[in-house]
Every structure is written in C-alpha cells, then in structure tokens.
Write a structure and sequence with these properties.
With about 575 residues, the chain is of the alpha+beta class. It has three domains: about 100 residues, Double Stranded RNA Binding Domain (2-Layer Sandwich); about 120 residues, no CATH class; about 280 residues, Neuraminidase. Helices cover about 25% and strands about 35% of the residues. The protein contains five helices and 36 strands. A four-stranded antiparallel β-sheet has the order 9-10-11-12, covered by helices on one side. Strands 13-36-35-34 form a four-stranded antiparallel β-sheet, with no helix packed on it. The longest helix is centred in the N-terminal third of the chain and has 110 residues. The protein starts with a strand and ends with a strand. It holds the Pfam family zf-B_box. GO terms for molecular function: zinc ion binding. Keywords: Metal-binding, Zinc, Zinc-finger.
Length: about 575
C-alpha cells in the first residue's frame, strides 16, 4: 500500500495534495481527498479504479498497467521474456504461445527467494563481513599505532642525531667566536696603547713648538723635551688563526678539530640516544702539577675576602664581606685604585669585562642593578626586575653578562627566598633565562645563598649552587649536562662550594669553603684532583689571571696566587 502523508495530530493527508484524506483507490493503493479523485482517474484513464471510503480501504497487491494494451492490468508473468503481460498479450499479442504463469505466483516465488537470500545474508554473509570489518579496523588501528610509534622513533632519532651535530657545530662556532674575541681584544689593547703613545707624542710636540716660538731665553734653556722618554714601539700581538680539519669515516665516526680542541661523533645506537652531546675535548693531555706552587701571598685589608677579579697578570679587583669599596691591588698588595659603592651599600659581586672594565652588582633600597665603572663615574647597565635582587655575575667571552637573580617573597617576620635563576643579558637586554629543565623542574635549589657561575670555552655554564651543595653544568641552551656533589674528592666535611672558574683547558675549578681546598674537574664533571694546604683557610673568592694562575681569597685577608698547571 502506498504510504500516505501524516500531518499534525495523526491526520492522514492526500497523496496528491495536503488536504485530509476522504477516499481511497484500492486498485492503485492511493489515499485521495474528494478534490483529487477525478484528477486521479483522469491521470490513469486506461485503468479501472475501485474508489472507496477511506475507512473501507483494503490492502492488496497493485498490478502494473500493460504498455501495449491501455486499460489492461498485467496479471500474468511471461517467463520467456521475463516481464509482466496482460491477457490480451497472451491471446493475440506478442507473447502468444510463451510460457507464462500468474503474476502472483511469480511474486510469491521471488518474494520467498528474496526472503531466503535476505536470511542467508543476515545470518551468514553479513556477520562474516562484519567480523572481517572489525578485524580490519583493529588491524588498521594496530598498524596506525605501530607506524605512529615508528614515526615518533624516527623523529626522536632525527632530533637526537641533529642535536648532536648541532651541539658540535654550536660549540665550534662558540670556540671560533672566542678565538676572534681574544685576538680582537689583543688588537684593541695594542691599538689603545699605540694611540696613548701617539697622544703623548703629539702633546710633547705641541709643547716643543710653543717653546721654539718663545723669545724668552729662560723658556728654552730651562725646557727639557720629553721626546727622549718616548717608549719603544710595543710588540705587535700575533694573531692566532685556528685551523679546522674534518675527517669522516662513513662507517664509524666524524672527527672535527680546531686548534687544540676536537669533537667526535660516533655512529652507534648508544650515541644516538645519549643525553649528553659530544663535547670539545683537549687534544693533548691536561698537565696538572702533582704539587702546586704558591707564587705569592698578597696581604689585604678585606675581611673574609669574597670577591676577586683579575686584571691582566699582576693586578686584581678585590672586596671583603662588609666592604663598601672595591680595591685594585697588585701582587705586592699596593692599592692602585679604589671604587666606592656608597656609604650604605656594598657590592654583591664583581667581574671584569673583555675590555678590562670593572662591573659590580649592588642592591640599594628597593633597586638592584649592575654597574660599569668608567673613569670617575659608574654607568648603570642593568636594572633587576621588582622583587628580584642581583647577586653573582660573570662576563662572558662574547661580551654578554650572566647574572644570578634571586626572587624574594615578603611574609611576616621578613623576606624569604622564593626562586633562583641565571639570566643572560646581551646589550643590556635579557636574552636568556636559565631556571627550569625540560620537565619544568627547577634546576637550582631554592634558598638564601647565591649562585656562582663561570662560562666554559665550550659554551657550558658552570654553576656553584651553595643551597644544594653541588655544581650544576648546563649547555648553551640551558639543558643540564651533569651535576657534581663533591663525593669523589672524599673530604671530611660536607661539600661547601663557593666561587667557580674555568681555564683554557675547559677544566672547572671551585673553592670548597668548609674543607679548605679547591676541586678541579674536567669539562664532563670527572673529578681530577684537590688542591689543599697552601694556607687555604676557608677559601671563597677565586679568579684566573692572564698567565693561567689562580688567585684565591681566604678568610685570613690574604690572596694566594697558585700555579697548578705544568708547561706542555
């Protein structure tokens, strides 16, 4: 039966329009309104139509109309032609003599056949395909997951391998820039020396010209020219140009050398997953002296001498724990210059720039800053953010400033330290912050004590963390390379690291205040030796002069100059 349209409140509507159904055509199984009855008959004039009241309708089969004999319905099925035909088609039409059967029988037979096939599809074929589809979905999911894992592994290996190569060449770039800075600094110092002599000569010549133009006998007779005092032309510094040599063994490793340093990238599964990038290591063995030598002991007036920064080979800036002055002293203890930081506040830390200028950090009232000392005055380079105080600082070979900044949190009873970080400043602007690792965990221990730091030749930043009683070394990106806890040195008292420096061999040297000694590590954190004795009473401040000698500040107000490396 044709499906009638159902409107609001289950009202059956006409199949030809939207009006309510009143009549029904049993022959065509169509619901009709009174208006559409005639339209239905006119549309199918050749067929007979049994129109009844809708409530008297019958559900019956609808026989199709014959194409060849209008007005006739097909009640027979021609098996020869496999199609419905009317009686006239069989008696006198094109299907005369063909094998026929009643259309209802054909309908029932094919209906049963379709029913059987439907049951077979539902019970056997469809479940089989559904199971196969489910299995395939699982296989797709499993394959997708496996290929995702494979892709992640490839990506991880790519990043690891690229990172190792990048680390090598980043360090080579850093080393190249270091060589460049060192040579240019020598040339700049030589240029300044030459220009100072030229200025003195011009001043003398100007004075001589004035004397020569004088008519007074006494001016000429009493004048002694300074031309005889002109120093000999200083020696022009040699430029050290490192040579890069690369050797590649396609089956084993890649070797790159620059000057006295080399890097090796080995092709192995272990290196691919290494947490440490390859490091530049000295090509020749490091020659540590079995017995170090105290070159000199410099007396000072600094109590608990905590800050030392060498200038050249024979001078250094120093200050004590409660000093408001920073003094420039020589190896005899003579004070050649004094910088006052004010009547109320003393320096937190000091460092010397590549140009030989003194820098110091200081906290005044609520303002913390880093200042650069110029002739007769101090220039403010960096202002610490609110609630952060500047502590220890370090000038890098590239001219950047590494500054330890400590965050304080006020609570009833006083301030407590909340965070500790290292900030790199480039051209007075913050360019890097070292505080947390890749997992968001703090690299440095929270606490009231400062972080001492030094930059190594390979770009690593070596940090003495007193709060954690350890040394932390991070690479240029701030990734932790290793930690050192002092245990290999086998000291009696707990490890108490203070100031820290790095030398030309990438060795890490630090003072151990409580154990009256120095620890020396290689660039990978391997313990090499302890320097003890030598009158190292509670060593704190530490610096290296241009000859590679250690200046160690002690609690006894003296500085020990120590030679610890043997000639190569």
């Amino acid at each position: 039966m044709a499906a009638s349209k159902v409107g609001a409140h289950d009202v059956v509507t006409c199949d030809l329009c939207d009006k309510s159904t009143k009549q029904f055509c049993n022959s065509c199984q169509v619901s009709l309104c009174e208006t559409c009855v005639e339209e239905h008959r006119d549309g199918f004039k050749s067929l007979s139509h049994e129109i009844v009241n809708f409530l008297e309708r019958k559900s019956q089969l609808v026989f199709p109309g014959c194409k060849d004999h209008p007005g006739q319905r097909c009640e027979v099925h021609c098996n020869n032609c496999d199609g419905p035909v009317c009686v006239k088609c069989i008696l006198s039409g094109p299907h005369k003599g063909h094998d026929v059967e009643e259309l209802i029988e054909t309908f029932e037979r094919r209906r049963q056949e379709t029913k059987r096939k439907t049951a077979e599809i539902k019970e056997k074929i469809l479940p089989k395909y559904m199971k196969e589809d489910t299995d395939n979905e699982r296989a797709m999911s499993r394959a997708n997951s496996q290929f995702d894992d494979l892709g992640k592994e490839c990506k991880s290996l790519r990043q690891s391998w690229h990172q190792e190569v990048d680390d090598i060449f980043d360090k080579m770039d850093f080393l190249s820039k270091t060589f460049k800075d060192q040579n240019l600094n020598r040339l700049r110092a030589y240029k300044n020396e030459i220009q100072n002599v030229i200025s003195d000569i011009n001043e003398t010549l100007e004075t001589n010209d004035k004397v020569l133009q004088s008519n007074k006998l006494s001016d000429v007779n009493n004048y002694l020219s300074n031309l005889n005092k002109v120093p000999n032309l200083p020696k022009n510094p040699d430029i050290t140009m490192p040579h890069i040599e690369a050797k590649m063994n396609h089956e084993k490793e890649l070797n790159i050398e620059m000057g006295n340093f080399k890097a090796t990238l080995t092709q192995s599964s272990e290196s691919s997953h290494s947490t440490d990038a390859p490091c530049l290591t000295p090509k020749t063995a490091v020659l540590l002296m079995d017995e170090v030598k105290v070159i000199s002991t410099i007396p000072t007036n600094c109590d608990n001498l905590c800050g030392i920064s060498c200038v050249g080979e024979a001078e250094g800036w120093v200050f004590g724990e409660h000093d408001n002055n920073i003094s420039r002293i020589d190896m005899q203890g003579s004070v050649n210059d004094i910088v006052s930081t004010g009547p109320r506040y003393g320096p937190k830390a000091i460092s010397v720039s590549n140009e030989g200028k003194l820098l110091y950090s200081i906290s005044e009232e609520k303002l913390g800053s880093v200042k650069l000392v110029r002739t007769g005055w101090s220039e403010q380079l960096i202002i610490a953010p609110p609630w952060w105080t500047p502590e220890q600082l370090c000038c890098t070979r590239s001219g950047d400033i590494l500054l330890n900044e400590k965050l304080w949190h006020w609570q009833w009873g006083g301030n407590i330290p909340k965070d500790n970080r290292i900030v790199r400043y480039h051209n007075k602007e913050k360019s890097q912050e070292i505080n947390k690792d890749r997992n968001g965990v703090s690299i440095f221990m929270k606490g009231p004590r400062s972080l001492y730091m030094s930059e190594n030749n390979n770009g690593d930043i070596c940090v003495s963390d007193r709060n954690d009683r350890s040394v932390v070394v991070v690479n240029q990106t701030g990734r932790v390379r290793f930690r050192y806890d002092g245990v290999p040195a086998r000291r009696k008292r707990p490890f108490d690291p203070r100031d820290i420096v790095t030398d030309a061999y990438n060795q890490i040297i630090l003072t151990d205040y409580s154990n009256n000694c120095l620890h020396i590590l290689d660039q990978n954190g391997q313990f090499l030796k302890c320097v003890e004795g030598c009158g190292l009473e509670n060593p704190k401040g530490l610096s290296l002069d241009s000859k590679g000698r250690l200046w160690v500040g002690t609690k006894s107000k003296s500085i020990k100059i120590i030679k610890y490396m043997a000639p190569e």
